[in-house]
Amino acid sequence: MKKRPEEISLMAESGRLLASVFSGLDQMELAGMSTMQVNDWVDRFIVEELHARPASKGQYGYAFALNSSRNNVICHGVPSGTEILRDGDIVNFDITLEKNGYIADSSKTYLVGAVTPEARHLVQITYEAMWKGIHAVRPGAQLGDIGYAIQRHAQRHGFSVVREFCGHGIGREMHEPPEVLHWGRPKTGMVLQEGMVFTIEPMLNQGHHACRTEDDGWTVVTADGKLSAQFEHTVAVTRKGVQVLTLRPEEGFISA
Q1: How much is the pTM?
Q2: Is 35 strand, coil or helix?
Q3: Residue 79 carries which DSSP code?
Q4: Higher model confidence: residue 239 or residue 250?
Q5: Are 163 and 209 spatial neighbours (Cβ–Cβ below 8 Å)?
Q6: Beta-sheet strands, E only, within 112-252
């Protein structure tokens, strides 16, 4: 569903506020913190400082302001007071924020302390793959172009793309059409039009792309126990190309 310019402006404000949440996380010493402590900080910051709403809280019965997906957790990890972030971990924080009735969605994988070169490489390539997908967005392009750009970059570096989860349209609802796959063939799928808003959020695995859901019904892990990383931005299709609504100040508009 296409958004009017005034709606995209409101979504850009939600995205700007969400970017400030990640800027705050960037300043934290994560090692030694529990994932619940991170969740509680994010919850308070969104509500008390930004006067906004953590949109994940209460969605589909979920009780927290973020997903915390550590090491071999692909996505939907549940924060816990007993899960302590340790030196050498990688952890993705996936956060949604609603302001003025419109939602923004973004995630970032953090390196906790001194991580292995292999883990650092996975995280870097996942970030680059997201940007490959973003740079494929323009009016007249097709959804398959986004997935192909991401998949090609991941596979060139020996990583697999998770296929069970995808990006999605977003606006007044967290999940709207269309589905945005992170793998595919060029010149296939829905044609992109000015005013479309959706997320691009590739999840790359060190090993096989297969996954399984743990008994809590939320946490999705790699089937082979190897590491997984993810990055996500909310983007709008513009007349000239693409606007990243959740762009963080330190990023600029990255050329991938």
Answers
A1: 0.96
A2: helix
A3: P
A4: 239
A5: yes
A6: 160-161, 167-169, 176-180, 197-200, 203-205, 211-213, 220-222, 228-230, 233-237, 242-244
